[in-house]
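#onboarding

Welcome to the new folks! Below is a worked example of what a typical request in this channel looks like: someone posts a single protein sequence, and someone else replies with the predicted structure as tokens. Don't worry about understanding the tokens yet, we'll cover that in week two.

Example request:
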Amino acid sequence: VQLVESGGGSVQAGSSLRLSCASSYTHSTWCMAWFRQAPGKEREGVAGISNEGSTKYTASVKGRFTISQDNDNNTLYLQMNTLKPEDTAKYYCAAGGCAFLFGDFSTNDFGYWGQGTQVTVSS
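Example response:
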């Protein structure tokens, strides 16, 4: 399984970006998610979605970010609005389990990862 992210960039606070993740394969039992990792910090879950469309967001992005997917084209999206400097990180697409729907995001639940795309938000 290959996951390829795109859409990152450098923007000013208050701007929007849309990340995309193209997957070479998906399975109806898999969930997809976006994680991010800032320098010196642990990788954290940002948003996740089940094959049926159930979603979950970390508190800091609720109301600003929207995760969606195009199952016909095996593509995952993350629409990021009202970006803040604290959103600066490398964003990763992940495929795997759905445990996050019932608890916290964990990198251990995802077996497939993309190479990441950098998002930098300046104030």
